[in-house]
Amino acid sequence: MPELPEVEVTRLSFAQRITGAKVVSVRLGKALRWPLGCPPAQLAGRSVLAVRRRGKYLLIDLDQGLLLVHLGMSGRLSFARHLPAVGNHDHFEMVTTGGTLRLTDPRRFGAVVYVAAGEDAPAARKLLGKLGAEPLSEEFDVNQFYAGLKRRKAAIKQVLLAGDLVVGLGNIYACEALFLAGIRPTVSAARLSRPRVAKLHAAIRDVLARALAKGGSTLRDFSSAKGQCGHFQFETMVYARQGQTCRVCATVIRSLRQGQRSTFYCPHCQIS
Ligand SMILES: [Zn+2]
Q: How far apart are alpha carbons 131 and 118 in whole angstroms?
């Protein structure tokens, strides 16, 4: 599932090239998670002003309104002057004067939603409103993070995945950040001391920044809008390494189920 680094890698791979382009036409395939919200023809003639990211959403600013893009479970964007013929899993395509942007999404949990009134409109707020702090920005403040964790009794890993304190941490990066911080994923968030929270705060930034530098993680079929795969999955410390030895202490990495997801941890390096 594309997480924050993959969405940011996607953004960086086409944002500059599409900025300034004019929409020529939009074609829809099968229904995605949410409807587009306007007749496709209404987008023709709009100019692309910028491509931003909020959590796992891409925001394509148009001269009137914006498009919210979510990659869902299996979505990926391509952007090029000439793309191969439309395939079975291509469900949104926007031809612009700068190239064609296409969403390929076999499982169709992704979506492209047009919001005429901008990101403060109720339709956009519904999607963006509950998001926590951006982990790589200044707004991700260690004091607020500590205060937020103090109010949550759930296991720290579940709190990280929920995304209402800090966005963008899916399974792989939550597991990796907790390993770096030496924190057992099952510990109650409220029980973490301030120094341990400070360590976790730094670990989250570190993991996401390194993943970004590696082009994200390609677990199944992620690739950027230029078609490049990520490489971070080759250097995980615990994720998907159950039964193998810890790269730090040689203890065998364990896995357990937490809220329908697998959690991976080192029983020696990560204490409760
Ligand atoms: Zn270890």
A: 17
- pTM across the whole model: 0.90
Residue 9 CB partners (closer than 8 Å, separation 6+): 212, 215, 216, 224, 230
CA distance 258 to 164: 18
Residues 6+ apart with CB under 8 A from 162: 154
The amino acid at 112:
V
pLDDT (0 to 100) of residue 52:
96
pLDDT digits (tens, 9 = 90+) for 56-91: 999 999 999 999 999 998 899 999 999 999 999 999
Active site residue 267: no
Ligand 1 centroid to Cα of residue 58, in Å, is 36
Cα separation of 56 and 70, whole Å?
7
Q: What is the CA(2)–ligand 1 centre distance, in A?
A: 27
Q: Please tell me the distance from the alpha carbon of residue 175 to that of residue 169, in angstroms, as a whole number.
A: 9
